[in-house]
Amino acid sequence: MDLGAAQFQEKLPGLQELLLGCDFVGLDMEFTGLHSAFSSDRHPSLFDSPAEWYQKARQSVQRFTVSQLGLSIFYKGMSNKYVTHSYNFFLFPTTFGQMDSEFSFQASSIQFLSRYGFDYNKFLKDGIPYMNETQEKKLQHLLSGNWIVQSSFDKDKVKKVIDEVTCWMCSAEEEDSMVLHDMYGFQVIEIQLILRQAFPDIWTIPLEGEKVSLIL
Predict the structure, then answer these.
(1) Nearest of 22, 21, 3 to residue 12 by alpha carbon
(2) Per-10-residue mean pLDDT, the chain, length 216
(3) Roughly how many angstroms between the first and final C-alpha of the chain, as a whole number?
(4) What does the DSSP assignment read for 111-159?
(5) Can you tell me whether residue 84 is helix, strand or coil?
(6) Burial of 212 (0-12, 13-18, 19+ CB in 10 A)
(7) Are 178 and 172 in contact (CB under 8 A)?
């Protein structure tokens, strides 16, 4: 079964239940590339030890991104047979505020995936957003904040506001401004603290009527 972002939340509880009761799982990942042409000294060699081979492969593949995760969940059945549930998760790096990802494509990998029917529309348009450990720590720091007031502002609304501001900043010029609406009570304070930390180049001004003005 193919799963993208649109179905992921709906299917997640069932997946968790299957994983908790299974005997073992199998994982497979597809990347947009494997061996970078820009790092010839990192190509695996027959003379490499397993540790050296792993380090070279790890460093090389970091130029690329995971495009699909394959998961097979196995249950032991009758007569030494196994029942399996298999899923293909389309993935795409998350964007959040100034957090963005850059990755490369390798022609041979793209040809290989195309040959076996990989759906690039699902990868680009419906990939499940994910982040690496470093990005996750930055996001946790942003959302938890070092400020005192933080309970009243819903995290989904924070993401929506930051996405809105990010889109505006892409085309805004110096001294341009925008206004955020529907900020209530302590949210006016919180959103200013969050935005000033996420976007050091903007200035925020509280306005009357539950609004916050942003100036670049």
Answers:
(1) 3
(2) 88 92 94 76 77 84 90 87 92 74 88 92 89 77 52 65 79 79 69 76 76 74
(3) 46
(4) HHHHHTT--HHHHHHHPEEE--HHHHHHHHHHHH-SSS--SSS-HHHHH
(5) strand
(6) buried
(7) yes
Among 172, 177, 169, 180, which residue's Cα sits nearest to residue 207?
Answer: 180
8 secondary structure, DSSP code? H
Q: Where are the alpha helices (DSSP H) in the chain?
A: 5-21, 50-61, 107-115, 120-126, 133-144, 155-171, 187-198
8 A C-beta contact, residue 71 and residue 86? yes
How many residues are listed for the chain in this entry?
A: 216
For β-strands 82-93 and 66-76, DSSP reports them as antiparallel
Residue type, 51: A
Q: Exposed/middle/buried for 162, CB within 10 Å: 0-12, 13-18, 19+?
A: buried
